[in-house]
Design goal:
The protein is mainly beta. Helices cover 12% and strands 42% of the residues.
Length: 357
Amino acid sequence: MKNNMKKVSTIMALSMALSGGAAYAASVDNTVQPMQETVTSAPSSTTGVVHVSVNSAAVANGYWTQDDKAAMIPLRALTEALGIDLKWHKEDKSAELTRGALWTQVFAGKDRYSVNKMLLTLGTAPEIKEGTLYVPAVFAEKVLNAQVSTTGDQVEIRSEEDVKTVKERGVITRISNQDKYQSIQIGGAGPDGIVLNLSEKTTFISAEGKEIKLADLSIGMVVEAEHSLMMTKSLPPQTPTYKVTVLDTAAETAAQPQELFGTSGTIENVIMKDGTVSQIEIKGTRLAETAPDHVILNINKETSLVNQRGEIVKAEQLTKDAKVMGFYSPMLTRSLPPIGTAWKVVVEIPAVQPKAE
């Protein structure tokens, strides 16, 4: 009798295990929908983690459904990367998405998506896990009109705007050289300027046209970047970047200190000598981990004076209360504030606003 009971239990457990995937893939009305997402190669992840990138920039990870047929991606991370506004309605657990003429609403647990005032099913319902709403990757293609390619545990999403590019030049103020999240910031420090997200497809070119590496770049360099028109709404905005060209010549790079410090802030004091600016005092925030946030910099004929786009400006722009970024060698005096010699000073000149007609 005991043996028969064990056999029945085993058969029931096996039946439940085999039917679990099918039940998970069913929509809310218990009708199983065909999966529309194209997977270029079978999932290889044993942990179920899906690595997601949008316009070549990595975003928060997703996961595979229990049957390994649908890659689920975090909706808010997707919409932020695509510049789409998301409004969460906690009363019915839905997310409302808007951008220009685009409007759709996503309901947790319902395989029902609105496209051009019509309802569409994708075979997988959105799910909430640990407070985050996930949608199937095919949602980006069928609803948001993006390109989706899935290879192994990698999901790459590209928007229509991503194929359009624009060029922008500026002085590098920050370099992030982490393995998965490489980026440089140009045109300003802190919330100012723009963050250029880099990928393995980003190319780096010297002023002489030679291919270089990210490791060859440093803060203070003037670069021109070719990047996507698509930007995040964060401060500073972030954008996928395809090409970075250093505009500093080999001679200018050779004159650069081997190691650079940087300080961004306002000029507290200006010292003149023989009618020329000889020294400025900057107080603000450091642009290098061990740099001071308050420094006095000597200005000499070798000091490069430019605006945030790298264009040459005159010393007359170095006035009290002007916003500047000073780049200099770590060789400083032990005084407070420390004193050093400026290699480059970037004067942040406000953009000219068009006059109203």
